[in-house]
Amino acid sequence: MEAMEDDSSEVKDDHNHNYCGGKVRAALSSQVPDGVGAPEPVCPTVPGGEPAKRQAKPWSGSPRGSKFMDSDTGSESSEVSEPDCSAASTEDKFRLDSTSKFLLNAMAIEDYRKNHWPNLEEAIDRLLIQNFSDHISVSYAQIYGYVYKCVCQQHSELLYSDLTSKITAHLQQVSTQLQASPTENLIENFNIALTQYLASLQCIVPVFIYLNKFYIESKLNRDLKEDLMKLFADHVAEEHLSKLMPLLIKAHSMPFQVQPSTMASVVKGLYSLRPEWAQLAPALFSSFIPQIHPPTVESQLHDYADRDRKLQMELSMNGFPRGDQSRKRASEDS
Asked: Which GO terms describe its biological process (predicted)?
């Protein structure tokens, strides 16, 4: 009777028939291989006498998988390792993502070519060839909307390339027309081309301000207007500079051969395109643009006075009298 009480004191059965007595633990400990610590109780109790939740504890290592003890049955369950397919699935997913991105990008570019750029190209053509006497109806809000959509759809680089290519082609046509112009009309025709181009930029640059702000300035570290001015300098002005500069110098030496407003517009335009061109004819550019010559120094005042007297003599000899000197005060005679 006492032996039965001893056994019942060491082996206790909970509601789920989990045996957690000392003898069972001793029996389990005797089956553990050497080098492996004794397992903890399979069904430890929590305060209050309630049995703990079932837990799966690793039993022993095995080359075919890990063995676990089921708290309900007390039997061992094996988890057999299966081949790892994660690398293959990742590669397949990467291929699918790349393919889908390529197709979406191709569809976006096709939409740009069919819907956005043709409208922008037509508007640019109308702005480039406009005449001051003609009224051109252009929706600047619509153009700005197309530019905004192109930039938001990651077509900034493509849009900038198309814009510069379009304007370059136009400037090449302008240069060809100037080459066919008579020499005596080259200054006037160059002034018309330059003035018209500058007027077009005043319309083109504002509607492309979104492209300028989020692509040209931020990524290229440049400015749209400066780039477009450089295109005119490269494809028009520089092509005709060797013929244009001698004509300007000659016209400057012969007053009123060319209208003063035309001379001032061409000279100032050339200086705005490339200031270094002023060094080709400093006397010409200094007549229309200040601070071309070095600053005045006191030691050269007599030279400046001699130049002024020489200029006055030349003007009087060419039919520009000094006017009536009879009423000049005697105290001012020199």
From this structure: G1/S transition of mitotic cell cycle; ubiquitin-dependent protein catabolic process
